[in-house]
Amino acid sequence: MTTQATMNDETLKSVQPSRREFVGAGLGLSAAGLLAAGAGGTLLSVENALAATAGEPFKPLLRSGDTILFQGDSITDAGRKRERDEANDAAALGLGYAWLASAQLLINSPEANYKIFNRGISGNKVYQLAERWEKDCLELKPDVLSILIGVNDFWHIRKNGYDGTLEKYQSGYRELLERTRKALPNVRLVICEPFLLVAGKEVKESWLEEFSGYCTAARRVAEGVGAVFVPFHSMFLAACKVAPPDTWAGDGVHPSASGATVMASAWLKAVGA
Amino acid sequence: MTTQATMNDETLKSVQPSRREFVGAGLGLSAAGLLAAGAGGTLLSVENALAATAGEPFKPLLRSGDTILFQGDSITDAGRKRERDEANDAAALGLGYAWLASAQLLINSPEANYKIFNRGISGNKVYQLAERWEKDCLELKPDVLSILIGVNDFWHIRKNGYDGTLEKYQSGYRELLERTRKALPNVRLVICEPFLLVAGKEVKESWLEEFSGYCTAARRVAEGVGAVFVPFHSMFLAACKVAPPDTWAGDGVHPSASGATVMASAWLKAVGA
User: Fold this and answer.
1) Helix %, strand %, coil % for chain B, to 5?
2) 3-state secondary structure (DSSP) of residue B47
3) Range in A22-31, A263-272, B42-51 with the lowest mean pLDDT
């Protein structure tokens, strides 16, 4: 499923089929053995070995040379310069979580030669991703694809007369990912939980129960395709115990600098970077 | 990441005095041995064992219940509400790296019950920390004390007619930490490297060579007291290969939101959180 960042393909083939065996033996392996097993300069931590035993995606998810694509709505878009399309261009990556996570990857691992793109577009719902998927995803041939979508699928029913439903969100999301897997069989997927905070003038506390259906749907979609899941909504619930909701997102949807920072950290943690 | 925060004091006492011994045997230890050594549910990663072999401070540095104090100048201050002095108060922690690092600690480890304070004051140099140290540090009895100081010790010689020298910075810093250790023998120290980026109207590239003396001094001071060292200047040099300097600090000194984010991450990484 998911794999170790800096290992080359040969190493992966040799390690992966015997992963359970390796892990089964893991607790008896010497530390030197763990190092040896993670050849190519990679350390396999005990934590990782345990995670793999539990059937979780094997981390870190990223590998040297990866093309990484962030997709989504305004939260991903975050003011990026759409006319710029070179990889790793700060202005093209916007000012949100996608940029902040990318910046840390590029600063901390210059030798990994990641090529990172942001193609989030403000206002998008799942069906609008589908409309521009060929050009804005498949043609870029990402090795790692991260998607954050859903708040508009929910919100625009209330505010913009959109005739969507939760079922349409979930089935549309599944279809999009099936199409993606068909075109890019080896793509590693990261699905981000949509989130909504009770802040600003619009969001009502009474919305949260229905909105939680979208969070659950995203999680199910992620499980269905073996994606890493980034629990943004849960993380923000925890964040709201640390500081008031408008600290993280003034209107309940669009993150402040602080909100984007904790999102970037949650994203990096989820992919094991 | 697992945290030593979950270890109780007995566990720490039993692990810490024999650290070198444990680490010396580390590469020959079985993974089960590593697990056992990190009793109380804590995993000691191979990475940590290697770091400790290299003579670096044992990480993670933080423990449950810790009082954590951020000290420094405007970069730490970062607009904090000085009239508020409760622990973990977002407004009292400012909007800089201290807040962003704190936010992540509080969100990710609510069970650790950290009590976090910020007492940075804009414009401060080492001797001004010393003047307010009793009230703004020793009386708070921090378990973990993080200090970022130095850019004003350098800059104000140029701009404000301050009669400081590099020697005065280094010796004053050492005296401050000796005084701290005397009053708080068990305090765990984090010394942050001062930084200067060639951005804005004031900073000249020609300043960097002399400024590097302040970076080296901070590192020596850290080594002298066995502190964790956070290499902010080195990190920003790497960041400037990712995006132009003014992305990180418009005037070369005061971090943007992006600059504060990568600082917070570097700080958390340095303490092993």
Assistant:
1) 55, 10, 40
2) helix
3) A22-31
- For residue B110, count other CB atoms closer than 10 A to its CB: 12
CA B224 – CA B242 distance, rounded (Å)? 33
Contact A190, A144 (CB under 8 A): yes
Residues of B in contact with A97 (CB under 8 A): none
**CA-based torsion, B147, B152, B155, B158: positive or negative:** negative
**Rounded to the nearest 5 degrees, what angle is found at the Cα of A223, between the Cα atoms of A218 and A225?**
100
Neighbour tally for B220: CB within 10 Å: 14
What are the chain B neighbours of A247 within 8 Å (beta carbons)? Answer: 90
Give A143-153 pLDDT, tens digit per residue: 999 999 999 99
Which of B28, B47, B103 shows the shortest C-beta gap to A258? B103
Chain A: give the shortest CA distance to residue B95, in Å.
Answer: 8
What residues in B contact A49, CB-CB < 8 Å?
31
Best CA proximity match to B123, nearest among B156, B145, B148: B156
Q: What is the pTM of this model?
A: 0.81
The verdict on B243 touching A (C-beta cutoff 8 Å) is yes
What are the tens digits of pLDDT across the range A15-65? 232 333 333 233 333 333 333 333 333 334 445 444 444 445 566 899 999
Go through the domains of chain B in sequence order and give each one's CATH number. 4-19+37-270 (3.40.50.1110)
Q: In this structure, what are the phi and psi dihedrals at residue B75, rounded to the nearest 5 degrees?
A: -70, -35
Q: Per the structure block, which two tokens stand in for B100? A: 């962003």
Chain B partners of A107 at a C-beta cutoff of 8 Å? Answer: 235, 238-239, 242, 262
B103/A49 touch (CB, cutoff 8 Å), yes or no: no
